[in-house]
Amino acid sequence: MRLTKIYTKVGDKGMTCLANGTKVPKYHLRIEAYGTVDELNSFTGLLRDQLQQMEQHKAIACIAELMVRLRLIQNELFDVGGELATPVESLNTARQQVVSHESVSRLEKEMDEYNDGLEPLMNFVLPGGHPANSLAHVVRTVCRRAERSVVALANEESVREEVSIYLNRLSDWFFVVGRVISREACVPEILWQQKGKNAPAV
User: pTM for the whole thing?
Assistant: First the structure.
């Protein structure tokens, strides 16, 4: 693929083309779904850049590994976007890269590994304490919105279930990663204060 011209003027009238050439309005559920996945990918890249700054200040093996995993996720999100841009009747999973149940299993395995090294969570945590932690939660919430967009689309058109399952696990993955970042940055987690019942974190 060679992109020689970025602007096409095709969308000037509020319409755009799907991967199979079908024209749809830009507010179409399918456009909303893969547009939100594109936004998610952008924030994931920003999180990776934030972690790279952490690694430059202090060599942290866990952060270096996390950055590699984030790069893989960015590629998978690009695959998700490509799939959502393709109506299911035109999708060829034998030729087009798509997320699979194996992708979901990998996220679950990584979450289990991370959780083994974390203190048990006794209360809800609030985003914050370190910029990378806060950004991980931004990514998590955008991922949840992407999942909702895909579910809305799947209610109207056929979408492989692997896509919404992947996004669901990925949002959980970012939650766990937020906790890992706090641990590696040596900052305390900020606990939700339920009407003064919980002592504030020092």
Answer: 0.88
| pLDDT for position 53 | 85
Give the lowest-confidence range in 1-15, 17-31, 39-53, 184-198.
Answer: 1-15
Q: What is the pLDDT of residue 46?
A: 97
**53 vs 42, 47, 49, 186, CA distance in Å?**
17, 10, 7, 15
Cα angle, residue 118 at apex, residues 117 and 119 outer, rounded to 5°? 130
Residues sharing a CB contact under 8 Å with residue 157, sequence separation 6 or more, in sequence order: 29, 30, 87, 88
| Interstrand relation of 23-25 and 15-17 (parallel, antiparallel or unpaired) | antiparallel
Query: Which domains can be identified in the chain, with CATH numbers?
Result: 26-191 (1.20.1200.10)
> DSSP of the chain, one letter per residue?
-----S--SGGGGSEEE-TTS-EEETTSHHHHHHHHHHHHHHHHHHHHHHHHHHHHHS--HHHHHHHHHHHHHHHHHHHHHHHHTS-GGG--TTTS----HHHHHHHHHHHHHHHHTSPPP-S-EES-SSHHHHHHHHHHHHHHHHHHHHHHHHTTS---HHHHHHHHHHHHHHHHHHHHHHHHTT---EE--STT-SPPP-
d(Cα 43, Cα 47) in Å, to the nearest integer?
Answer: 6
